Amino acid sequence: MSEPPAPIAPYLRRLLELIAEDAPAEEYGAVAVQARAAGAGPADLAELERAVGTALRVRRVLRQHRRRETELAALFDTAGDLAALRDLDAVLQSIVRRARMLLGTDTAYLTLRDDEAGDTYMRVTDGSVSPLFQTLRLSYGDGLGGLVAQTARPYATPDYRTDQRFRHTGSIDEGVLDEGLVGILGVPLLLGGRGGARNGQAGQAPAANGARSGGGAAGAAEGDVIGVLFAADRTPRPFTPEEVALLCSLAAHAAIAIDTAKSITELAEAGAVIREHAAAMQRAEEAHDRLTDLVLRGGDLSEVAAAVAGLLDGPITIHDPEGRTLAAVGRRGEDFDGPVPEPASLVRHAADSHAAARAVFRDSRWTCAVLAGQELLGSLVLYGRGRLDDSDRRLFERAGVVTALLLLLSRSVAETENRVRGELVADLLTAPDRDPAGLVVRGRRLGIDLGRPCLLLVAETAAGHHDKLAAAAGRYLFGSNGISAEQSGTVVLLLPHDGTRPGDAARTAVGQLTPLVGADVTVAAGGPAAGPRAIADAHEEALRCLRALQSLGRTGDGASAAELGFLGVLLGNDRDVESFVTATLGPLLEYDARRGTELVRTLGAYFACGGTLTRTKDELHLHVNTVVQRLDRIQALLGAGWNDPERALELQLALRLHLLSGSG
After folding, report:
1. Is 525:558 a contact under the CB 8 Å cutoff?
2. Cross-strand bridge partners of residue 225
3. How far is CA 620 from the centre of its chain?
4. Cα separation, 234 vs 495, whole angstroms
5. How far apart are CA 415 and CA 421, in angstroms?
6. 588 within 8 A of 600, measured Cβ to Cβ
7. I want to staple 202 with a disulfide (CB 3.0 to 4.6 A). Which of 61, 156, 326, 652 is the partner?
8. CB burial of residue 652 (10 Å; 0-12, 13-18, 19+)
9. Are 150 and 140 in contact (CB under 8 A)?
10. How far apart, in whole angstroms, are the C-alpha atoms of residue 91 and residue 84?
């Protein structure tokens, strides 16, 4: 009698144990082998074979579930890590590190889009050793990464070097070879759409000579590609659909994290700009209040310059329209120790600022035109600042407005005071003996001490420019203790005597007033004199000198009565000097002009040497016989008796006038 077949229940129980232990697949097949060896019947063996197949399917499903759970846990961890990061570099580094860890590859790296260059560039790597590879740039459509960026779909290759589906370029292949990469998977970082391949399938690359476009390909996933995430091995590796899907999921998290990090960075930058703007506005408001307070308190130009120098941390100078310095202070309000630019350059730069309607940078300094409407009142100059940001530049220009306001106020006050001063000058010159003490008191109230030596200048210009001369005199005296007033068709300037010689003071005034008026200005000086009566006498003296200058044809010149000597007295009544000189010396002047001789010079030397021949020949460096011959020629031209005392005086006066008129 045969033995009964072995029961299969223990073997079925063993299959359940193997499933619970997650044993290797080969151990499942060994169970059927053991049952056959134990004498199990054919029907039972068939049932056991079916059970083994079912157990293997259950094992595979359980392993897939566990792997999926592991991947999801990793993705959740990744999402948590990325959400906690705010620095973009840290975000990118975390992404590639997690990609390398999840897929177990040798390297992972990430490229980002460069909108200006129209390509993608290597941004961060993990596990890379090649400097050449770490600096690669990939044009759209070139290599696996360029293709992913172009089509917005994932692509994988088990062996990049032999794969002809991609467009190979020398630079990309050289970098990949230098890094030693073989198997590569790339997935897009997408914003605003769904990334990745459907069902976890990596797309198939088009032919190497396919169409190239920077705007994506037909059928690409919707969304904006901001970069590509890669995982790569240095050995051939086929990437499974599950690995593609996993990297796509990580790329989706990464794209959002990158966008968030960029948004946070942009918000931080915007916040910094807003705070900086608010601080600049507050600083400008405080500066405006400070400068306005200076004007309202009656501050002068030096105080304004010191305030602006402190606000802008640089030396400041203020100049009038002709480039003369009105105020100058150092960086922190101390004395200005730098060289003041030439007036011509100051005037030129002020004109540039006026034309540009804003401050300009010229010759290593900032210049702002000080304007009242279209009238140029002067310029404000800032030194030692190579660059001014918008807020500082606006502050500097606002300081120019405040300076203009102060100059207008000062000019208005000066014009009012000048009217009062004009009344003082009129009383001083027309009635000096009526109330001398009262005149001195009035002068002190206006800032000039009539009891101390003063110079008196009388200026005159051509008809039609008299009003300009009066205004120019006020500008010429601006900032000094002098006063000016119109008097009988002339402009009188009364200023304290500082030791300057009267003639020099007259010529200085000519040099300043002529360009201001735009016509020749003649100035005569009298004094110095102290006291109302003496000042009135100095005015008469200056008037006689002025008439003498005009008689001598020296319009546009300046001199003092002392420099003209007794001629100033003789010529003070509009004498016809030219006719007198011609009538007296005419024959000699004509002979010298026709023959090229020096009879006039010889006659002047003869009189200067007291009529002595020996001294005359030494003065002229001539032989005495030559002097005698010239005197004989003079007698022949002038007639006998030319050396008589009365005729000699006329000749000497004519010679003196001829010399002073500039013709001699």
Report:
1. yes
2. 190
3. 66
4. 97
5. 9
6. yes
7. 156
8. middle
9. yes
10. 9
Alpha carbon distances (Å) from 437 to 425, 444, 455: 14, 11, 19
Which has the closest alpha carbon to 223: 291, 154, 277?
154
Structure confidence at residue 621 as a pLDDT band (50, 70, 90): confident
Q: How confident is the model at residue 193 (pLDDT cuts 50, 70, 90)?
A: low
Average of per-residue pLDDT values in the chain: 79
Give the length of the chain.
Answer: 664
Phi then psi for 516, rounded to 5 degrees? -70, -35
Which tokens hold the place of 630? Answer: 């010239």
Q: Looking at 518-612, list the stretches that DSSP marks H as alpha helix, in order from N- to C-terminal side.
A: 532-551, 561-564, 566-570, 577-595, 599-608
> What does the pLDDT read at residue 447?
73
What are the two backbone dihedrals, phi and then psi, of residue 576, each rounded to the nearest 5 degrees?
A: -90, 85
For residues 69 and 37, the answer to whether their CB atoms sit within 8 Å is no
- List the helix and strand counts (H, then E) for the chain: 22, 16
Of 635, 660, 636, 661, nearest to 648 by C-alpha is: 635
Most confident of 86-90, 198-202, 483-487, 494-498: 494-498
Q: Which two three-digit tokens encode residue 491?
A: 């402009």
Q: Are strands 558-560 and 521-529 parallel, antiparallel or unpaired?
A: parallel
CB-based contacts of 424: which residues, under 8 Å, 6+ apart? 439, 442, 443, 446, 483, 485
Instruction: Give how far Cα 75 sits from Cα of 70, 82, 662, Å.
Output: 9, 10, 105
Answer whether the bond into residue 528 is a cis peptide, omega within 30°.
Answer: yes
pLDDT of residue 286: 67
pLDDT of residue 315 exceeding 60, the answer is: yes
d(CA 322, CA 483): 20
CA separation for the pair 107, 105 (Å, rounded): 6
- Closest by CA position to 137, among listed 170, 182, 95: 170
Instruction: Say how far apart CA 414 and CA 205 lie, in whole Å.
Output: 88
Structure tokens that stand for 339 in this block: 């060289």
In the chain, what's the furthest Cα-to-Cα distance?
195
Q: What is the C-alpha to C-alpha distance for residues 619 and 81, in angstroms, rounded to an integer?
A: 109
Instruction: Give the separation between CA 645 and CA 70, rounded to whole angstroms.
Output: 137
pLDDT, one tens digit per residue, over 526-570 is: 888 888 888 888 888 888 888 878 877 788 888 887 776 556 545
